[in-house]
Amino acid sequence: MTAPSTIATKFLPAKDQLGLVAVGFSGGQCKPGVDAAPSALIESGLLTDIQETLEYTLYHDGIVHGYADHLPPPGTDLPLHIAGAKAPMINPIAVSNVTHALCDQVYEHASKGRLVLTLGGDHSIAIGSVAGTAKAVRERHNNSEMALVWVDAHADINTPESSGSGNIHGMPVSFLTGITKAPKENPNIFGWIKDEHRINPSKIVYIGLRDVDIPEKKILKDHGIRAFSMHDVDRYGIGKVMDMALDHINCGPGQEGMPIHLSFDVDALDPYVAPSTGTPVRGGLTLREGDFICEVIHETGYLVAMDLVEVNPALSGDGPESIGAKETIRAGCSLVRCALGECLLG
Ligand SMILES: NC(=[NH2+])NCCC[C@H](N)C(=O)O
Ligand SMILES: [Mn+2]
Ligand SMILES: [Mn+2]
């Protein structure tokens, strides 16, 4: 593959420095257990692989953040009723506060030129991780925008009005694009998100979609957002889909490119490979297709940050031995290693 142009190479984080944020947060949805994912991923040896096999210098405070200081007192974070909404927003203050704190942590790493890995947690945390990366990229690179590659069975672009569940893990992209602003019912909620944190909808690419709500389809269409569903993966194959995806964000061979934030929801993978997740949907990516997406993004040289979210070891459905949870954790570790450069021969 052609080497990235010299202009674009300036965007890149230091090749061998990785900032890690472990986010044990589950308030963006209702199923307990997703907060245990960062510890499970770490215990399975992910950080050893990152340091010893992939030879990154790791910057990590050693804490799996539960953000206790940022959580409102029990019983005070009431569901927020939004005019015209189908369901109230669940845990709005907790999600807003935690993502704000995470944004600062990710920004801290990214502004020092480190590649940032955020281990969730449910997908609401991407509000913080993407916002922090976008801000650092703008500061470091002369106000440059950033591309967002969102690999998921779901579009996660509901507004508080369109969401049928009220779960904020189904809304992060609408907040990150500014399609949704802080709700007038309580402007403090996500009031911290400013233009410097936001993503241009034309710089988003989805891969793996297969469970998109009807109002979300309209939002994607109205904003002209590029999305590759499982139908596209079947039709073109993952190789061609990745070519088209990178072409859309100008990160293909010989193109000028821009920094990429990869947000990987493990439910993009088929439940055969990754059953332990809160909202599994049949007909997903094989592990090789998931790994391939990560390898191709790595190969561009433009990766600046990655999230791995929605691993929920408590939801294995196969008893105490929990083979499903182990497999899901293994799959998650594989995705991360591929995004960090494993599997390529040279
Ligand atoms: N990050 C996820 N797993 N999101 C699932 C979202 C499901 C549904 N579209 C909702 O808004 O509630
Ligand atoms: Mn999902
Ligand atoms: Mn998601």
Automatic annotation (TrEMBL):
Cofactor(s) listed: Mn(2+)
Pfam family, one: Arginase
Gene Ontology MF annotations: arginase activity; manganese ion binding
Recorded catalytic activity of this chain's protein: L-arginine + H2O = urea + L-ornithine
Keywords: Arginine metabolism, Hydrolase, Manganese, Metal-binding
Entry EC no(s): 3.5.3.1
GO CC terms of this entry: cytosol; nucleus
GO biological process assignments: arginine metabolic process; urea cycle
Cofactor remark: Binds 2 manganese ions per subunit.
Pathway this chain belongs to: Nitrogen metabolism; urea cycle; L-ornithine and urea from L-arginine: step 1/1
Signal peptide: none
Family: Belongs to the arginase family.
PANTHER family associated with the record: ARGINASE
Name assigned to this protein: Arginase
Organism for this UniProt entry: Tuber magnatum (white Piedmont truffle)
